[in-house]
């Protein structure tokens, strides 16, 4: 039971990465043929679909991946993405704004 609770975030992340393995809708399979003008579902937020599905047993083939997904979730939670973005992709607008305010 403790292991299942500890791996809950990894299992939840697995539902986003491997939706087909859990019986969730995915971009590769569809119940009916789509026409080009139909809107594709938004796969960024699957919370409603996951709640509707309810508890699902994790497929055996995905169990070895759970420790990796757990580490990914932990490192992602620790990362300061704003700081990383500012360092690796500095905004020219911000630097122009800073230099113009320094001159006045």
TrEMBL record:
Question: Gene3D superfamilies from the entry?
Answer: 1.10.132.70
> Could you identify this protein by its name?
Uncharacterized protein
Q: Which organism is it from?
A: Rhodotorula graminis (strain WP1)
